[in-house]
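Quick one: examine the sequence and fold tokens given here and explain what the tokens say about the fold. Here goes:
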Amino acid sequence: MAAIRPAIAQDDGKRLQESFPGMEAESESRNKPKDKRSCKMTINTNISAINAARVLNISTKALAKSLARLSSGSRIISPEDDPGSLGQSVNFAAQINRNAAATVNVDNAVSLSQTQDGFMLKVQEALDRMSELSVLAQDGTKTNTDLSNYNAEFTALQAYISDITSRKFNGVSLFTSSRLAITIDSDAATFALNAADLSGSTSTGVLNAYSGISISTSLSAFSALNQIKTAIQALATMRAKVGANIQRLTLTGEQLEILNENLSAANSRIADIDVAEESTEFARLNILVQSGTTMLAQANAQPQLALQLLR
């Protein structure tokens, strides 16, 4: 019986090792001599404090970075945060600024064109009245005095139209044969406005309406009426062209606004922080700094334990 018991104990041991394979490794690890360097009590070199200080330094820098992001609203505080995205953001911002400048140019051109049309509307009213006077002056029942009165008003309207032809917008002539070039995008592409010339060769009809005609007689009134009708048609054509200018510029301005809106959205995804996400990260880092500070104090106190061995 005594011989059988050791055999049974040995078999039970094998079964335990097969059921719990980690037991053998754990048993061997207990029997191995420990590294005495990992548990030395030293005064000059405090590895625990050095490690705690290093981790605390990392947490403190991250906390400062998070605080800077929250205070500035920017995700990229310094170039090393995200160099690739920083370059893209710079390009977006530059294009947005150029588009804004182009929008200002387009809006100024719209104002110029609207000023042109406003003046031409008054010219149209003057021509309408002049044509009316030309018809009245051809009435055989009118005396020379009546014709003289009609001609006085006719001449005053001619002077009014002539005065409008020299009007300027910020020093730029409103009515000239030159086509103004307007910047319409961030690459400085230009659009040439249709010209509106009230005094040049391209608007002879309008020019003749206020130069070289009168309604002092019935015969001259008949000739003047034909000139004025031609002038009204030429003015209508110019107003149509200026209207086309305004329509083109308005659409261009709206296009630039849409482009800038989307560029700003894209740039925001790169450069701006998610405040909710960053505030959560800030809270986490704040706790890490506080706990790291506490643990560093504990690690710095460890060498004092050596004093107890010297008492």
Remarks:
- Residues 112 and 179 are 13 Å apart (CA to CA).
- The beta strands are 168-169, 172-173, 181-183, 190-192.
- The two ends are 59 Å apart (CA to CA).
- The longest strand covers residues 181-183.
